[in-house]
Amino acid sequence: MKGLEDITLNAAKFYKRKRRNNWRLNYHLEAPFGLVNDPNGLAQYKGKYYIFFQWNPFRCEHKFKHWGLFTTEDFINYSYPKAVLAPTNRYDKNGVYSGSGYAMEDRLELLYTGNVKNKYGKREAYQCRAICDEYGNVEKKGIVVGKIPKGYTAYFRDPNIFERNGKYYFMIGAQTKDLKGRALLYSSENFEKWNYEGEIKTSYDNFGYIWECPALLNIEGKDVLIFSPQGLEREEFRYQNIYQAGYIVGELNFDTLEFKHGEFKELDFGTDFYAPQSFKDEKGRVIMFGWMGLPEEEQYHPTVNKGWVHCLTMPRELKLINGKLIQKPLIEMKELRKDKIESLEKVEIVSWKSDNVMENSYELVLDVEKYESSLFEIKLALGEIEYASLKIDFTKNYGVFDNSAMAKGLKSFRKFKLNNLKDKIKVHMFMDKSAVEIFLNDGETVVSSRIYPKEGSNGLEIISYEGKLKIDKLDIWSLGGFKFNE
Ligand code: FRU
To answer: Which residues form the Glycosyl hydrolase family 32 N-terminal domain (predicted)?
Structure first.
């Protein structure tokens, strides 16, 4: 196995070369080679943002999980990715799995799961500590929780640190022996010794067979438990992907561990979103990255043949409004705007096509009114033989993201409800080569998907069905990319 330094050097070579490829991303974090999954260890430490991620630098398979690291001060200029944790110890030999970070005065504390398959092929899980310094050097400190609490299987992973009332805690994903997903809580005074507090008692007794990446946030005085359950049944408007990622909002009693909460809500309705992680920055913003991918779906991504797969979402700011998480692209993303290539105001259309989108790297802001139309469609990545589509149905109050007319990649159809449409909708869309993120109605509903357009499939068209649609405002900017430096 290649060592961390070799991987880091090879990554740097990749960034020094001029990259030109249809599907390589401009402003989404991706790996130069191998497979990327969950964002890990998110934190701001000494003014710098640390974005670690799950990385198999060798192959496009869920094996050999390392931690990679990007750092940035402004979410535009990034360091080259560094490989910082490798699965080389007996307690993490089958994967340095997901975990989190917590910035202290003099160090960045990290916790992760050491995934081990023992000699009988049985899974073991160890919660391990590591420390990162201000130069991004990471040092392993070994196991801090070696035992799985009674009654749970070895799907015991993804410790997520937070602080409450002067004490440190981590939430961790678990599975009961009768195969039900759970989140467990640990506490500590010092990051070295962790005490098992118990299981979080939610009203979701039977809600998937495992909960991955649980994390407790405090937003506007409310407790928000974000987690990624596996095993929910697909419904017409919900749970359409193989696995889900969402949250419950309420109040956690730290003495009894009872969590009074509302209904589970999904964070994203596109084809590619899982295992998000969030942190609070020094400005008090709650910032989230998700993995723009899903486990067991690599076969749908044609980049696998080119030796790389998946990326992270753009950074999003989370706000809690009326019990609902609202997601907006981080304000820094505006710095990527180059030229305003389209600008319309108060026009009625049956169909409209852009002549100015030359590359799949743009941001679109569209405010429309139903007017006479019952349904409208935005066709993107439009080429001679293909397109992806977002449809908004004003009469039935739902939206659809449809990949099925794309030549390559997953062919899918994702349907989601839109509340309070009131005959108007705001669409804020970021198209980045092979990734699209759509924020509807100021971030109330988000749809993130990978699409793999052919060379030249970068058309954009808006079509209204059964009458005219009124465009109150349409702006499109071409976007530049993130910059990477040593
Ligand atoms: C989520 C997950 C985590 C695990 C990691 C391994 O995508 O399965 O539960 O720690 O990926 O890469």
So the answer is: 28-329
